Amino acid sequence: MEGGILQNVILLVDSYKNSHHRQYPTGTSYIYSYFESRGGKFPYTVFFGLQYILKRWLQGPVVTKEMIQEAKELHAQHFGRNDVFNEEGWNYIVERHGGKLPLKVCAVPEGTIVPTKNVLFTVVNTDPMVPWLTSFFETLLVQVWYPMTVATNSRIQKQILHHYLSKTNDDLDPLPRSLHDYGYRGVSSVESAAIGGAAHLVNFEGTDTLAALVFLRKYYHCNMAGYSIPASEHSTVTIWGRDRETDAHRNMLEAFPDGIIASVSDSYNIWDTCEKIWGEELRELVLKRGKNGGAVYIRPDSGDPPTVVVKCLNILGDAYGTTVNSKGYKMLPPYLRVVQGDGISYKTIGKILENMKTNGWSAANVGFGSGGSLLQKVNRDTQKCAYKCSHAIIDGKGVDVYKQPITDPGKDSKKGRLALHLINGTYTTVQQEGNDPKLDMLVPVFKDGELLKDYTLQEIRERAKLCSSDINVMQFLKEDSANQDE
């Protein structure tokens, strides 16, 4: 995570930000900004990822004379002029603050579930000589949108899985590992995989994104955040040839004789593979594994997921038998399951589970994996994330700042110095003035280059866990589907 060509914090910014220090009114000494989700696809956000940004980029002395010189030369070429780059301001930070950033950040604790349209963190400069610094770091700080949105997307799917397990299974034991992260290859970079994969692990314990484990060790004090199993891919099956598909699956069983394995089974004919190979030719090996406490997960990877999953369950049920749980739904033997990793998103996972329920199958028979839809198919507008100035001190007087575009009321911004209160179980954004500061859920997390809070993944998971006050996820899916149809 420490590699790469961009190590100069002065360059982690949109170009035009460098001209803003000359645009504020004379006498401006403090600028106060806030970050929020203005709405978006999901009705709440799981706040996560700010600690990484603060630790990785802003903690300690982060500005040097060498960085300033590098930035000065680049900006002169980039803009074709010498009156844009704020050399004086950056030199002041090095000389007066030893290269530490005179900023204060207050934020809701990571893992908190906050309805949209509420303040999530605030930023203000602590030295009146550098008011421009607050807005300068918007570019970097707003990138919290990514881990926050992935964590939210992941948690919505956890709610869906929880709903169907509650309806069709005796317990919720499968839930923590019921959605596996397959997204490493589907994201834009190794860093994206690490950040997004870590965000998923706020809610679940299953992942194949190793970078996320390294990330959480370094930035969130978790020695081991997620787990995986031996699993085949199409190349390790098809390399044996079509006539030797049975040998490929047998080799998988023998190479890893104990524990849980997953074997992709749609290389040629998923129905024949389930019925003849798994149901007949390899049946004794599967039973033997079961007696030793292991299990086999059969993985289809093509076709219409709701249809394919149920048909696989039916074939395997005929071959191995089923029992009926206390909720009245069929269960495969505990040593046999299906894992569906193709086409999984918050939009499709409920459709698969509903079709299983309709056909009498418990949700506990299937595990899921998600890749691009989990880590990549999101953007800043998914939750309409924005960072806006809401207050300033000019000539010693406080001034509330806001925008109110006539062409889009959805982009109205908040004004004043903000606080987040939890009133009768409901989060509400209020102005600090006239309200009890003890009620503010925003806590100082960073000041003058020093980290003030250092959360662990364990406590973040505790805050993000499902609770009785959660939204009705099935109603959300219904409304989301209706909105897509409009």
TrEMBL record:
Record keywords = Glycosyltransferase, Pyridine nucleotide biosynthesis, Transferase
What are the EC numbers?
A: 2.4.2.12
So, what pathway does this thing act in?
Answer: Cofactor biosynthesis; NAD(+) biosynthesis; nicotinamide D-ribonucleotide from 5-phospho-alpha-D-ribose 1-diphosphate and nicotinamide: step 1/1
Q: Where does the Nicotinamide phosphoribosyltransferase N-terminal domain lie?
A: 8-105
Q: Which residues bind diphosphate?
A: R185, H234, R299
**Reaction catalysed by this chain?**
beta-nicotinamide D-ribonucleotide + diphosphate = 5-phospho-alpha-D-ribose 1-diphosphate + nicotinamide + H(+)
Task: Please list the residues that bind beta-nicotinamide D-ribonucleotide.
Answer: D208, R299, P300, D301, G341, D342, G372, R380
Q: What are the Nicotinate/nicotinamide phosphoribosyltransferase domain coordinates in residue numbering?
A: 178-427
Q: Name one GO molecular function term.
A: nicotinamide phosphoribosyltransferase activity
Which GO biological-process labels does this protein carry?
A: NAD+ biosynthetic process
Entry-linked SUPFAM superfamilies: Nicotinate/Quinolinate PRTase C-terminal domain-like
Q: Mind telling me which PANTHER family this protein's record contains? A: NICOTINAMIDE PHOSPHORIBOSYLTRANSFERASE
Record family assignment: Belongs to the NAPRTase family.
The protein's name is Nicotinamide phosphoribosyltransferase
